[in-house]
């Protein structure tokens, strides 16, 4: 990869050098045209305007390509963030269902223990299940915090995408 980058850098340096040489030759041609008579002076000025507009066009095209590349990168990140949000929302709904089931089981066990019925669950087993429920609650909280963070990133990326859309117009 390093060699490929070096090769690209050399190619860009050569292209830059060629453009500078071309620019110097055009400038010399312009000076020689302007120095002779009024008609050639007018032609030289028009030629200068044409060359200046071509240079500006090239600059605008480079800026447009850079903005387009940036836009594609932001859209890809936005898509990735949206996918992560969907996955986290699915995870949250799964955890909520699991938490609900565990809460109902704990409530039933608590009722049985309070009524004095000694089921197959001992107090130690109930404490263990209570600990699992607390772990699930903490996992749910952590997942919701991650979801909030992903939503913030999504909003930022959407803002950047909209900003690029406005700049394109």
Task: Describe this structure as you would to a colleague.
This protein has 169 residues and is mainly α. It contains 3 helices and no strands.
How many beta-strand runs? 0
Order of helices and strands: HHH
SS class: mainly alpha
**Termini distance?**
36 Å
Arithmetic mean of pLDDT? 79
| Oligomeric state of the chains in view | single chain
What is the helical fraction, as a range of percent?
over 70%
Strand content: under 5%
Q: For the report, how would you describe the main beta sheet?
A: none
Low-pLDDT stretches: none
Work out the helix count.
Answer: 3
* Shape call: rod-shaped
Radius of gyration: 34 Å
Show the helix and strand layout.
Layout (H helix, E strand, L loop, with lengths): L1 H33 L3 H78 L7 H46 L1
Helix pairs in contact: 1-2, 2-3
Structural key phrases:
mainly alpha
In summary, what is this structure?
The protein contains 3 helices and no strands. The protein has 169 residues and is an all-alpha fold.
């Amino acid at each position: 990869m390093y060699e490929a980058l070096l090769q690209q850098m050399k190619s860009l340096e050569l292209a830059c050098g060629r453009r500078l040489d071309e620019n110097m030759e055009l400038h010399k041609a312009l000076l020689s045209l302007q120095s002779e008579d009024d008609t050639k002076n007018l032609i030289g000025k028009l030629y200068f305007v044409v060359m200046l507009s071509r240079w500006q066009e090239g600059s605008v095209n480079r800026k447009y390509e850079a903005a387009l590349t940036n836009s594609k990168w932001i859209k890809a990140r936005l898509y990735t963030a949206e996918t992560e949000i969907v996955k986290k929302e699915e995870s949250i709904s799964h955890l909520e269902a699991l938490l609900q089931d565990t809460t109902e089981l704990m409530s039933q066990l608590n009722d049985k223990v309070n009524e004095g019925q000694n089921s197959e669950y001992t107090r130690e087993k109930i404490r263990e299940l209570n600990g699992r429920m607390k772990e699930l609650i903490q996992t749910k909280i952590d997942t919701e915090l991650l979801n909030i963070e992903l939503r913030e990133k999504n909003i930022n990326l959407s803002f950047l995408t909209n900003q690029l859309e406005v700049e394109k117009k």
